[in-house]
TrEMBL record:
Organism: Shouchella clausii (strain KSM-K16) (Alkalihalobacillus clausii)
Protein name: Chemotaxis signal transduction protein CheW
InterPro entries xref list: CheW, CheW-like_dom_sf, CheW-lke_dom
An annotated GO BP: chemotaxis
Domain of life of the organism encoding this protein: Bacteria
UniProt domain CheW-like: residue ranges: 4-138
Listed GO CC annotations: cytosol
Amino acid sequence: MEHTKQFTVFAVGEEWYGIDILHLSSIELLDGIRIVPNADPAIMGVVNIRGSLLPVVDLRYLLYQKKMEVTEACRLLVCAETLGSFVLAVNEASDIWEIDLASIEELSDAPYKKGISHVEGTLVTILDGAQLAKEIEHQVQKQ
């Protein structure tokens, strides 16, 4: 039975989040985003990743309805095709952390949040990749 899992940990605003590494294919510099006219506020635009044009979702806007401030530390999390074809814009990407599954306290009332864990002195909210993908698909289809 699995006791730990690997998560990519990243910042959105002042908060730290984690997503199962199996849900991501790569982490890229925040560069080359093209604006899409009349797009939903959560959609920053589109970006070309290895020949595929993918929508870029402002994760801060999706979670808090506040636009992300773009800095040099910002990164693009390219989601694996199993979730769908999209990219998450985040304030900073940390590293891959091994998190004990028993340390994750479940959050029942949060739509895309599986739980919360205290890791290496940092509070990390674990995102449910499948639920997040459903919401993003809904946002993209509104376009």
